[in-house]
Fold this sequence. Notes:
alpha/beta
Amino acid sequence: MRQTxxxxxxRLKERIAQTGAISVADFMAEAGAHxxxxxxxxxxxGDFTTAPEISQMFGELVAACLADAWMQAGKPANxxxxxxxxxxxxxxxxxxxxxxxxxxxxxxTSMHLVETSATLRAQQATxxxxxxxxxxxxxxxxxxxxxxxxxxxxxFDALPFEQYVKTGGAWQQRAIGHDEAQGFYFTVLxxxxxxxxxxxxxxxxxxxxxxxSKTSLAILDVLTTRLAQWGGCALIVDYGYTAPALGDTLQxxxxxxxxxxxxxxxxxxxxxxxxFSALRGRxxxxxxxxxxxxxxxxxxxxGIMARAEALCARATPQQRRDVEQAxxxxxxxxxxxTLFKVLGLTQKNGRIKPAGF
Length: 357
Ligand code: SAH
């Protein structure tokens, strides 16, 4: 059931009244949970569009990469095919349709969707109605043990991020306060001991912003520990940057237009750009890491041109235009081709070298 804007906003106002300003991460967690619980954000009528919603080619090529990893590993039994944050279930459905054609694969496989929103779980169940062996979990640690093939598309950008801002010569955590006169506003928490600012940024000028995501790193640890123990391959696709950088990347999209992060709390998504260098550095302790490579290069190496041609060969003129436009949106540097990046993770034994890197 759809609730009004005031639910998330009211809860946050009450919390701030009780405890004082709260961190950007806590604000994102609460506003994001409300947003995904009450909205289906994707598509033309929604707030933003993701790669699988643009074209089936995305899920088909991700599936091809994961199926190839499975073959490189010697076709193990008891595969856990995992998706983090499956949205409407479109990517999972495109993958399963493709994987159904890989001999012996689905019979060995159970699908595990890690999703916290009941609204989106229901949509995913509808999208995957044709398949047995689909299970839902709240957290990646709840997925049963076994060889793991995992995809996370636009999942990490939606997780809570901490922001630190250099203020009067000291790094302070950015926070959100509220009062009746101003509504929600940005402020800072008192300087904290042990704020983990990388040495290279310690002397940055005032007003510099450093972002980190404790939640992302904790989830990454769970999944790399899993890969180290059971083997497999994980693909993390998201928009973000590859070298450590300063800057405020917090953003909201409403009906495909950038909106003020503090407006319409709980009614619009709040995301940040993913720091791939941080993910890479953290993952390397447990697994072999490939990339990040640009999404356009990844899809190109996996054969998106040939796939587009095959789809066009049996398409109407309108469908052909759609395929060509989707190809452009997924791969062109001015569209998703460069900003979006792909990181590959495998067990540290050299058995799997994922395709596309
Ligand atoms: N992968 C999809 C949707 C991305 S949107 C696509 O490409 O279209 C982010 C998804 O992550 C949503 O399904 C949202 O409900 C889910 N999500 C957000 N935070 C989560 C969390 N902490 N745990 C599990 N799922 C979460």
